[in-house]
Design goal:
about 160 residues, alpha/beta, Rossmann fold, 5-stranded parallel beta sheet, globular
């Protein structure tokens, strides 16, 4: 059975790469499905993304300014969400070029200091893992969701298997 039917929606819990968002959009029906993206706070970023998605003819993307964990699972516009794509902030040490990843997508330049030392500080890793668990727990409160995809760019078990 397919994860999505023609009129099902997707909720992306964290604005990561705009390419991921566009990919989710083109995998769905542009007329009957919507892709909601949480955490786009800056008005400039919102305008930039809307323009980019419009040029790509991704008409079914709706940017939400709220953090994922502040969104009530029962709000009416999210009742057709069947898939949640959870892309939590992470150490980013599982990508081939973590410095580029952090600068372009992660928005946490403090991790660059950790990279220069060869690993992530224990307290930073713990903070990331706690936030990841909070987001995963919140995602499970969306009772109509049929699939929850949890994806990090980390090699650390503390951000992957231990959280799940």
């Amino acid at each position: 059975k397919a994860l999505l039917n023609m009129d099902d929606d997707i909720l992306i819990a964290q604005m990561g790469s705009w390419l991921t968002v566009a990919h989710m959009s083109v995998l769905t029906n542009q007329d009957t499905s919507r892709v909601f993206v949480c955490g786009v706070k800056s008005a400039a970023r919102d305008a930039e993304l809307k323009d980019r998605f419009a040029r790509m003819e991704c008409k079914n993307i709706e940017l939400l300014h709220e953090d994922f964990t502040n969104i009530e699972p029962t709000i009416s516009k999210l009742q057709k969400v069947k898939v949640i794509l959870l892309l939590p902030r992470c150490s980013g040490l599982g990508v081939s070029n973590p410095i580029e990843f952090i600068l372009k997508e992660h928005e946490d330049a403090e991790l660059l200091r950790d990279l220069s030392q060869g690993s992530v500080a224990e307290d930073k890793l713990s903070t990331l893992a706690q936030q990841q668990l909070k987001e995963l727990t919140h995602a499970m409160q969306f009772v109509k969701v049929q699939a929850l995809i949890y994806c990090t760019c980390s090699l650390y078990p503390e951000e992957n298997e231990v959280v799940v």
